[in-house]
Amino acid sequence: MSETGEEWQVARRRKGAARKTKSLQVSSTCSQEELDIGKTVKRIRDTVSELRCEEFWQGWKVLLCSAAGSAALSKPPENRDTEGPADQLGSSKDGRLCQQLECVCYGLGSFSSCVSARFQLAMLLLLLDAGQIPLKDCSVYDPAFSSGERAVLRELGLTVLTENEEGKRLATKPTLFYLMHCGKALYNNLLWKNWSVQCLPLMILIGNGFNGMMDRTVGREFQRDYSYIAQAVSVCEERRLPCPSRLIDVFSDTAVITFPTGSLNRLPQSTWAEPPEPQYQHCSDLEIIQRETQS
Predict the structure, then answer these.
(1) Which residues contact 250 (CB under 8 A, 6 or more apart)?
(2) Domain limits of the chain?
(3) Angle (nearest 5°) at CA 289 between 287 and 294
(4) pLDDT digit string (tens) for 20-67?
(5) Burial 228-267 (b: 16+ CB within 10 A, else e)
(6) What CA–CA distance (Å, rounded) separates 47 from 168?
(7) CA distance 36 to 88
(8) For a FRET experiment, which of 94, 163, 171, 267 has its CA 20 to 30 Å from that of 195?
(9) Which positions ≥6 away from 180 have C-beta within 8 Å?
(10) DSSP per-residue letters across 159-193
(11) 103 CA to centre of own chain
(12) What's the CATH class of domain 60-71+100-272?
């Protein structure tokens, strides 16, 4: 599968994109082909250190730990039998999360030339550290990545996917999905793939809030084209993540979204019966390009 930009087009919503804050101005004078891997890794790690000192980061950390604890309790019973109470709660003796989550990141963007994408990558690394998720257990994909950027991600220890999954990744264990400012179709595909009472509670989703998506889309079109998001709005738990004004273009409208089993069980059983795969034949401005092999 080719990793060119034609394969998957990620549309990014930038609230107030015309406003350039001094702290986020960036000059991309070097091409991606000339990317200095060592310097780029250092720049990312410096950004991690910068975010770690931000007050709002503590809010993100608390909400992640809370969500991860709930997701850990949603593991299949056979996976819990060999674990003690601390493991089931997702907590270790020092209060941090046990290494039982994995992570998938889609649509990060070109972080070597886009400062917003670099901050989002730095936040991802902070979340992995807070959740005690091994770097190798975090898979990342975006066709916008250059060969140099893929090398940087591998140098950081992350796993770089080579196939366009279109967001259709099944959660078989508690999983953090990190989708910053991605298109609605990507979220919708992810929900469709996990559309069951067993899989949805395993998901922790950090990305654009579903309520905001619904408010910005014509109701009839939202129900028709993004039916899984539309149904999820009423049963998910969406908690807005704090964002300082200087980073509004980076982390605006970001929430941590979970799917409590109790809420899902209130829906009729017919909700889960043979959910049809999204096709998007009516979408003229689809924010994801589908695989050529898909009909």
Answers:
(1) 24, 116, 119, 120, 243
(2) 60-71+100-272
(3) 135
(4) 333 444 333 344 458 999 999 999 999 999 999 999 999 999 999 888
(5) bbbbbeebbeeeebebeeebbbbbbbbbbbbbeeebbeee
(6) 30
(7) 43
(8) 163
(9) 107, 108, 120, 206, 207, 208, 251, 254
(10) EEP-S--TT----SS-EEEEETT--HHHHHHHHHH
(11) 8
(12) alpha beta
Whether the CB-CB separation of 162 and 1 falls below 8 Å is answered with: yes
Q: Which two tokens stand for residue 244?
A: 């300082």
Task: Specify the pairing of strand 175-179 against strand 159-160.
Answer: unpaired
What CA–CA distance (Å, rounded) separates 168 from 61? Answer: 27
Count how many residues are written for the chain.
Answer: 295
Alpha-carbon distance of 254 to 240, in angstroms, equals 6
The reply to whether the predicted model has a pTM over 0.90 is: no
| Mean pLDDT of all residues belonging to the chain | 81
Extract the tokens encoding 50: 């910068």
Contacts 24+ apart (CB under 8 A), 33-42: 33/146, 33/147, 33/148, 34/148, 35/112, 35/146, 35/148, 35/149, 35/151, 35/152, 37/148, 37/151, 37/152, 37/155, 40/112, 40/148, 40/149, 40/152, 41/152, 41/155, 41/156
**DSSP alpha helices (H): ranges in the chain?**
37-52, 55-72, 77-80, 85-88, 115-130, 147-156, 184-193, 210-215, 219-225, 227-232, 248-251, 261-265
- Which residue's entry shows tokens 């559309």? 195
pLDDT per position as a tens digit, 76-126: 544 444 443 333 334 444 344 444 899 999 999 999 999 999 999 999 999
As to burial, measured by CB atoms within 10 angstroms (0-12 exposed, 13-18 middle, 19+ buried), residue 187 is buried
Which two structure tokens, joined as six digits, stand for 229?
Answer: 């998001």
